[in-house]
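Researcher: We plan to redesign the surface later, but first we want a full-length starting point. Tokens attached.
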């Protein structure tokens, strides 16, 4: 399951400075949006990876493949249950630093999954990842929208969530192949390392925004809905 968390979108108030008459927009922030898309790619790959490694993880942990499949469900349920409250609790934190922190927590979650000595330990690691993943999705849509004028919001959000589509098409299959070839634990360790690289890329290349509050508008929600790929089904 993916894209389960509510994505907060920015205010339509003209006082926010986006899309004012006579205002000359700056260059389109390709680098920043690609950095966000890369973060989305890694986050969704992390969420769905157990589905491709069911037999390997089942044998190593001594549990059924169905129980391993439930790791994705635990992750998704945690997203649904915690994303709104975590978004509220972190509403005053700078968004830029929060995205970096979330990627680091996701990396830690993958390390915990990789070193898990038993199933219960792994469930705990996945729950931690689900909390970070939900908070990430509560922030990322609004962040992308605040990098561009109002008329470019749909384009910006489409570029950002395209990382999720690429994760389904390339990320999960490649990580699964690596897991079969090198071992599933090493696959999660490698993904954790990429998460840390992604955190550095976001910290270095994602422009900072100063917006904290948000208010949905019909046009912006429609732009997001049109851009987002369909959710993947949980086992």
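Model: Full-length starting sequence:
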């Amino acid at each position: 399951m993916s894209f389960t968390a509510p994505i907060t979108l920015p205010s339509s108030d003209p006082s926010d400075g986006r899309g004012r008459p006579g205002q000359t927009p700056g260059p389109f922030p390709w680098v920043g949006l690609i950095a966000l898309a890369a973060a989305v790619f890694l986050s969704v790959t992390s969420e769905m990876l157990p589905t491709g490694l069911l037999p390997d993880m089942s044998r190593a942990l001594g549990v059924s493949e169905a129980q391993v499949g439930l790791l994705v469900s635990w992750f998704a349920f945690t997203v649904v249950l915690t994303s709104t409250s975590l978004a509220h609790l972190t509403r005053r934190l700078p968004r830029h630093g929060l995205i970096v922190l979330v990627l680091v927590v996701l990396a830690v979650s993958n390390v915990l999954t990789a070193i898990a000595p038993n199933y219960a330990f792994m469930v705990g690691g996945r729950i931690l990842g689900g909390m970070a993943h939900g908070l990430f999705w509560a922030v990322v849509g609004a962040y992308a929208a605040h990098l561009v004028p109002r008329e470019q919001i749909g384009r910006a959000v489409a570029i950002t969530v395209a990382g999720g589509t690429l994760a389904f098409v390339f990320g999960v299959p490649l990580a699964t192949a690596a897991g079969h070839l090198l071992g599933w634990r090493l696959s999660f360790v490698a993904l954790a390392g990429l998460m840390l690289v992604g955190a550095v890329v976001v910290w270095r290349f994602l422009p900072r925004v100063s917006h904290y509050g948000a208010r949905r508008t019909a046009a912006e929600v429609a732009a997001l809905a049109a851009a987002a790929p369909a959710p993947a089904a949980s086992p």
